Description:
The mean pLDDT is 92. Helices cover 37% and strands 26% of the residues. It is an alpha+beta fold and 203 residues long. The protein has a five-stranded mixed β-barrel. The protein has six helices and six strands, in the order ββαββββααααα. The longest helix has 20 residues, at 177-196.
Amino acid sequence: MARVSIFPLSGALLLPGMDLPLHIFEPRYRALIHDAMARDRRIGMIQPRGGGLKPALYDMGCLGHIGHIEALDDGRFNIVLRGLARFRLVRELDVATAFRQIEADVEAAPDPDEEILSAVERAALEQEARRFADMLGYVVDWTAVSRLDDASLVNGIAQIAPFDPAAKQTLLEADTLQDRSERIIQLMQFAGRAERDGGATLQ
């Protein structure tokens, strides 16, 4: 078990091996960054299940390492968080810090050699991503996309696609890259059907 200081943020998805840029401005999370930099530069990203000052949390998040940090003159920070490994929330700890801390079961980092898609799976994802991008009017460098490894492609789409927080949580919770890719395709297809039906939503 590990003690993890957390940054609950709705709609922000961090996955192992991926980068997440964040602008830190709230005093409690500025304190979180100060604390992390004085220790091991690690914080946990996890989504809240609702609103309020201390909302309930989803069961799974992702541990991240602060790679780049820019301290601004007014006390805010710009950071880039690198995803390390998923964790499962065991219990929240009673702490005096302004930021929340939990006890978590941290998974082993994924093996890059196992993070691959078949040629058919890769082609299906790229095809659906093109349709989805066209529907939303996105301009994408598909040549650059074609050069990405499978994990970077799948996890990159999962992080940047405008899915709602609950959908993003299902992507985090997918246990294999193939599962995550299939869920992304389903979400994009659902959004496409909603758009055609005149009720565009990514819920």
